[in-house]
Design brief:
Strand content: 15-25%
Largest sheet: 3 strands, antiparallel
Shape: globular
Helix content: 40-55%
Order of helices and strands: HEEHEHEEEH
Low-confidence stretches: none
Structural class: alpha+beta
Strand order of the largest sheet: 1-2-3
Mean pLDDT: 75
Number of strands: 6
Number of helices: 4
Distance between the termini: 37 Å
Length: 142
């Protein structure tokens, strides 16, 4: 079962990929059940879950935090859309996402973790980047 943090961060990643995350249903006394919709969700459902049952994926089924198959397209989007440089330390205890072209000062987002799986280090760096990215977008629209 996913933690609340994993679920919220996976939903944020899904939105970053262009999907729509919405409440599917709510039962009093239980957390709302969220789903991920849109073309990206259909691609993930068919490619990684083997279930072409429609264009929605339950939040609890999102695997960005544990599957390289899910996480690598996010790195590709970050790299292609944002002109970012992504570096990894040789033992994956360090992931650096930086962008000298966004804003006046270079932006560097880092996660340094020891004794963690490599995917956790990269997922944390992506979450940090997307939080920063969302703040930049929000500040430009205000």
């Amino acid at each position: 079962m996913l933690t609340r943090e994993q679920t919220q961060n996976n939903e944020m990643i899904a939105k970053f990929l262009g999907g729509i995350v919405r409440e599917a249903w709510h039962v009093e006394g239980f957390p709302s059940q969220m789903v991920w919709e849109g073309n990206e969700a259909a691609i993930y459902r068919e490619a990684f879950m083997g279930r072409p049952l429609g264009k929605t994926i339950l939040s609890e089924e999102m695997k960005f935090h544990e599957s390289w198959d899910w996480l690598m397209p996010v790195l590709d989007k970050i790299r292609k859309d944002s002109w970012l440089k992504i570096e990894f330390h040789e033992d994956y205890t360090y992931c650096l996402i930086s962008s000298p072209q966004l804003g006046a000062e270079p932006v560097t987002l880092e996660e340094r973790l020891e004794d963690m799986p490599a995917i956790k280090v990269v997922w944390d760096a992506i979450v940090t980047y997307i939080n920063w990215y969302n703040e930049q977008v929000k500040s430009k629209t205000v």
